[in-house]
Amino acid sequence: MRLHYSEGHVFYRNLHYSYPVISYGRKSCLYDEDGKKYLDASGGASVVNIGHGVKEVTGALSRQAEKIGYLNGLQFTHYPVEKLAEEISKILPFPEAKVYFLTSGSETTEASIKLARQYWVEKGYKNKFRLISCKPSYHGNTLAALSLSAREHYQNIFRPLLSESIKIPAPYCYRCSWKEKFPACEMKCAHELEKSILKSGKENVSAFIVEVIGGASTGAAVPPVDYFQIVRKICDKYEVLLIVDEIMTGVGRTGKWLACHHFDLVPDLIVLGKGLTGGYFPLSALVVKKEIVDSLYKKGKSFIHAQTYSHHPVGCAAGLATLSYIKKNSLVDKSLIMGDALLKELSPLISHPHVGDIRGKGLLLGIEFVQEKKSKKPFPRKRKYVEEFLSKAMDKGLILWSNTGLADGMNGDLILLAPPFIISQEEISQIFNVLRDILFKMKSLN
Ligand SMILES: Cc1ncc(COP(=O)(O)O)c(C=O)c1O
């Protein structure tokens, strides 16, 4: 059974798709109302890290809801929020932090740039408001988060409402803006940050926001280690806050608690979401170096931000139970090991003429499709290559994530793989077999 917009009252995200109706999930799989099994190779939107149906988390959630389901973050505090902030502070690259809980990645992005702005104003730098971000990138879908992002097909129609940020080329080596290779490129994309700060005037720039390892926008592109060394130095030199978006990469997705740890990177603010509760409750977190929040505190100020569901007791209980389950079962290590295994299994696909690149870290992997390998020419958008690929995979019971527009804002197709960390070797082989079968049935052009 599938449901479509023309039936029922739901305002679906896709008005032109017939949705399978899922009944339940267990481990890495989903089961629909007709009993069809799906292997969740994308973890939803790179969310499901500990797997479906984990009783330790559902139990913690319901116990907390029974005790107290809601408290307002302005009136009370509670042990789940206190303990979760403490647990998060143990996995950070800086010694002391303050953690502000919200419910979605986009909200956390917004909060991060608001806090950066307030920080500078309280310090007396009233002009520091400009934001720099990368192209391509994705930081969320609310208007300010969308403004920071570079994803044309999400942005175009809303443009008069967006406040443009300054964009510099992302560290996306496969499609290097200078068509050079590392290390010969001398990290031009990192030095572009300095140029853009100088152009705007350092007295006007508040923060640089960047995904540490690319999410869907660059299909799990991993920057060279040097990138963040250079970026950190530039931010320090010009007093620009460094915000890292770990909404997709955080909480073990790339085989370390945070992707920052792969680069020995110490940012100023970190935004987390998605895997923080393994998908069991909407929860995100703005993680800030303590000295930044202290500077407000010492002036007798608080962060000017308010959301009804911030610091939510049930969300924080779900987060605590998820982190504890990850630790108890060594799932961050598992993400690294199974990520390597998946990358190895997928590697023969590179010989297929449509596969331009296979990349990623831990259990965040991307496969980029091209029409012509040598020139990296993408399929024309009207070909809808990745849409056809996804639909064929869904028919075979394999759930994938996709993105388009990465080559030039319009064209470019990729799939993202982000299965739960508990994925088995047998399921990895299953992913490979389905991808290979589909690839060999895909025609170059319609
Ligand atoms: C890197 C990144 N940042 C921000 C977001 C926005 O998070 P949310 O959809 O929870 O608002 C996403 C969502 O896909 C993301 O991948």
State the total count of DSSP E strands.
Answer: 17
* Category from helices, strands and their pairing: alpha/beta
Mean pLDDT: 97
**Helix share, percent:** 25-40%
Q: Can you list the ligands bound to this structure?
A: pyridoxal-5'-phosphate
Strand order of the largest sheet: 6-12-11-10-9-7-8
End-to-end Cα distance: 29 Å
Measured by DSSP, the beta-strand proportion falls in 15-25%
- Largest pleated sheet: 7 strands, mixed
- Spatial shape: globular
Low-confidence runs (pLDDT<50, min 5 residues)? none
Q: What is the helix tally?
A: 13
SSE succession: EEEEEHHHEHEHHEHEHEEEHHHEEHEEEH
What integer value in Å does the Rg equal? 22 Å
Any descriptors?
446 residues, 34% helix, 17 strands, binds pyridoxal-5'-phosphate, 18% strand, alpha/beta
